[in-house]
Specification:
Elements: H1 3-11, H2 21-40, H3 47-69, H4 77-98, H5 105-121
Helix pairs in contact: 2-3, 2-5, 3-4
């Protein structure tokens, strides 16, 4: 096999389907949500694990908020505004959870709602 063929094979996807951006978003959000759900359902969850999961979720929502705030974002303005509101709410509620003044239910419910929206558009 020539060097050119080897190089071409190295860049081929080997028959694997390349995920589109929306599917990638879904995969990231569902991973974070599963962590939150697992901890929510564990009566003996370690608080450090909760802190890590909440931080990971908040980081996700900070990223989403930054992405929808950009002028180049093509989502409808109302959807962008709703996602930005959720991002701010997640930040506020995450602080409540870390102060032990709130639970994981709200964070899980918000993520599940967004996942349903993404699933409807996949």
């Amino acid at each position: 096999m020539s060097k050119a063929q080897l190089a071409a094979n190295g860049y081929s996807n080997g028959g694997e389907r390349v995920k589109d951006f929306r599917t990638q978003e879904y995969d990231v959000i569902i991973g974070v949500t599963r962590d939150l759900q697992r901890l929510r359902n564990d009566a003996n969850a370690n608080f450090n694990d909760i802190v890590n999961a909440v931080h990971k979720n908040e980081k996700l929502w900070i990223t989403i908020g930054a992405l929808v705030s950009g002028d180049a974002n093509a989502l409808p303005q109302s959807l962008r505004a709703n996602l930005l509101y959720i991002a701010k709410f997640v930040s506020h509620h995450s602080n409540d959870v870390l102060r032990k003044n709130g639970g994981l239910d709200v964070l899980v419910d918000l993520n599940v709602s967004v996942l349903r929206g993404l699933k409807g558009t996949l």
